[in-house]
Amino acid sequence: MQSVVPFHSGHAGLKQLLGGKGANLAEMTNAGLPVPPGFTITTDVCRSYYEAGMQLPAGLMEQVHQAMRELEQTKGQGFGDPAKPLLVSVRSGSVTSMPGMMDTILNLGLNDETVQGLAALTGNPRFAFDCYRRLIQMFGNVVFDIETYQFERLLHRLKQRLNVSQDSEVSAEGWTELIGEYKAVIRKEAGREFPQQVEEQLALAVEAVFRSWNNARAKVYRKVHQIPDEQGTAVNIQTMVFGNMGSDCGTGVVFTRNPSTGEPVLYGEYLMNAQGEDVVAGVRTPVPIAKLGEEMPLVFDQLVQTAEKLERHYTDMQDIEFTVEQGKLYLLQTRNGKRTAQAAVKIAVDLVREGVIDTGEAVNRIEPFHLDQLLHRAIDTDKPLHVLAVGLPASPGAASGVAVFDADTAEAWARAGRKVILVRSETTPEDIHGVLAAEGVLTSRGGMTSHAAVVARGMGKPCVCGCEALRLTDRAFAVTTADGEAVTVREGDALSIDGATGRVILGEVSLREPELTGELQQLLAWADEIRTLEVYTNADTPEDAAKARSFGAEGIGLCRTEHMFMSAERVPVVQAMILAETAEERAEALAKLLPMQQEDFEGIFRAMDGLPVTIRLLDPPLHEFLPNMEQLVVERERLNGRPDADPERKESLEKLLRKVRALHEMNPMLGTRGCRLGLVLPDIYEMQIEAVFRAVLSCLREQLDVRPDIMIPLVGHANELKLMRELVTRKADEVLGEFARTFRYRVGTMIEVPRAAVTAGDIAQHADFFSFGTNDLTQMTFGYSRDDAEGKFLTHYVETKLLPDNPFQVLDRDGVGTLIEWAVERGRAVKPQLKTGICGEHGGDKQSIFFCHEVGLDYVSCSPYRVPLARIAAAQAQLALGSAAAPVTAAEEPVSSGRSA
């Protein structure tokens, strides 16, 4: 096992071993950049630590001490030397960037003796004791798990006593006093003294950083971003450089491009006379990086040149941490910068135009789930807004909700169905569950590189930071607006934020839907040139169809006709059809529904002119259109108890109850629904089929290119589809008349019953296409009721790793996927040009789209707003996997008439 690697011995190719931070520090060291020397304890050690029951491997610290001796020789200082003390930072560094999720300790190596040596060596006692108090606080929090507020309240009290507001104003004597108080906190809370032996400090710190891999916030972050638990973290031990030694010192974070917009300008913040944690923790609101050009022009020019060099080297936007010590620039870290979806797309397109990467790499750079963020809503500017204050626009998008002031409340209220805005003075990594639950985040302190900003951007949440006009109390904040109005916002009050402008707005706001940017359209065009998988949409209205087409949908893979029955004016007609006592009564209700359905189909055909439209005939059981039985019983009892109750109402209520009871099934989702309903009550399907082909005729007369696919749901036996196909053909011939012999349409089925997948060869004899309804297929394959599983045991299954993913979100390859593969193989063995696709929610999931590409499906179908995501994911699948089982495209595939399969 490789345990310790000096920076000068590593390189970027060892990222899995050294972690992202360690690999990049090694790469920069070998490029001759000004990196403080150090070494990395590898991810192998982290894994061994957990395998051994959270024990450091034997012999590790001997290797660490040897590496420390090499650092001592390089620096001409001694670890624990009272005269010339060597101080180091101990920092985490996972393979996948997890900003702020794990722990760091700075200034390690200080004790009661070495702090005096540091004071004498620098001639700056105030600086030395400031470093010591920082070490004790961080050590107490990270190693001994003492809450930060235990230290912060003592610091606040000291500043009040000294009548100062900034840390830099505290004297050496003030820090000495505080150090004594901090030691007392450790003695009380940890039951031991702060360790004076620097070797003990180092061992405890290394172990604590490894421990932080499994802290609560890191686990949540890994779950959200799908980072494997077994990846582990490295530990980087690096000699300290100091940004808090005086007025010629500083620290900052800089991005080589704007991480919110993608603009190619240096973007970041810094603080003079401060340590790096002051910037990222949001304790002080930092200064824009451009100001550094005025304060330290030589350092700024060097930083600009270094940023350009690093971006070219890594061919991506970099997030760089730097420190200036007595006028000299040092680089502490570089990594690919977290960015918003808007910025990710613009940066990828710009890098292609600059000749840095090719179009395939640009497509691969985009995380498909980030495209959801690109479709952020924005505030409707046509309506007046009650703007309370303006902070820093840290993460774009707009959100409304009720104000909450702690992460636990945000999570609880969100779980109860309330939309919340998390308001904090600044967020800490412990707040991640609240950020995840909130619609957006607002902080009164911190900059655009603070924890809140970085995490919100990564999650696609709107965020406004550093809104210093807010005066926070326990469960409220007060603010004086630009007009001098005094306003108090309490917990539960409606609040809105605009992450694009930094505005904080009282009350809810109207939000407008997003539009595709020019850069995204370019990126999607490149993706379309690469992918072989077609992307359809699930749409039930002309409006949804038009929206999906504007997002690049190439057809409708699922039009759920039952959704057309749900409007207020149609439900009574549908209920009349269900409650009909005779065939004549049912025919009368169906005759009223027919023109309504025809109008719906005409609108969808017009919106999708020239593209296929897959229409699924009625799928749910009829009881879903009727009132709840328990509610009806309660109303009957209420009427029976009233002597003046309307007799006609009582009679109609009894009739309704009888019908509901007659339709009642113990398990209706496995009962009389889909094709089973069509076979028992064929007149319902006949009405729908007639509406489809009447709409076809109407659109043909308008010279539209109409391409209907009729989908029969819930087929489990070939005979069901055979009979249903005959019904479609007969009705089409009847309606189309002279067009029947020349007009082409498809008839197929949704494969959602396991038996249909297993007997796909038989079913394919009567089908022009298979559409896999993976929602129901997953339910029936696992034997899970989705409504019950997700609310009861499924979360536990995923959290305990019993299942790798929620199978309703990520397609289960081994079970459901095997059935799909069987069905495709057996169906195409009978009919080589059988068209295949999926139309469940998996059609918008990246991993599931990769599977669809692998098994050679023709298309995926997803909700309109996930169409851009699916286009990108399909291209990424082609880039990663190459050509699959050569699907037959819609253009190549001969379209059969409905007359025969």
TrEMBL record:
Classification via SUPFAM superfamilies: Glutathione synthetase ATP-binding domain-like (SSF56059), Phosphoenolpyruvate/pyruvate domain (SSF51621), Phosphohistidine domain (SSF52009)
Domain (Pyruvate phosphate dikinase AMP/ATP-binding): residue spans on this chain: 16-52, 55-286, 301-350
Species, as recorded: Paenibacillus oleatilyticus
PEP-utilising enzyme mobile domain residues: 419-502
Record EC number: 2.7.9.1
Entry-linked PROSITE patterns: PEP_ENZYMES_2, PEP_ENZYMES_PHOS_SITE
Cofactor: Mg(2+)
UniProt keyword annotation of Cell wall biogenesis/degradation present: no
GO terms assigned for molecular function: pyruvate, phosphate dikinase activity
Pfam family, one: PEP-utilizers
Keywords associated with the record: ATP-binding, Kinase, Magnesium, Metal-binding, Nucleotide-binding, Pyruvate, Transferase
Enzyme class label: transferase
Annotated family: Belongs to the PEP-utilizing enzyme family.
Protein name, per record: Pyruvate, phosphate dikinase
PEP-utilising enzyme C-terminal domain sequence ranges: 517-878
Catalysed reaction equations from the record: pyruvate + phosphate + ATP = phosphoenolpyruvate + AMP + diphosphate + H(+)
Record lineage: Bacteria, Bacillati, Bacillota, Bacilli, Bacillales
Gene3D superfamilies referenced in this protein's UniProt entry, alphabetically: 1.20.80.30, ATP-grasp fold, A domain, ATP-grasp fold, B domain, Phosphoenolpyruvate-binding domains, Phosphohistidine domain, Pyruvate Phosphate Dikinase, domain 2
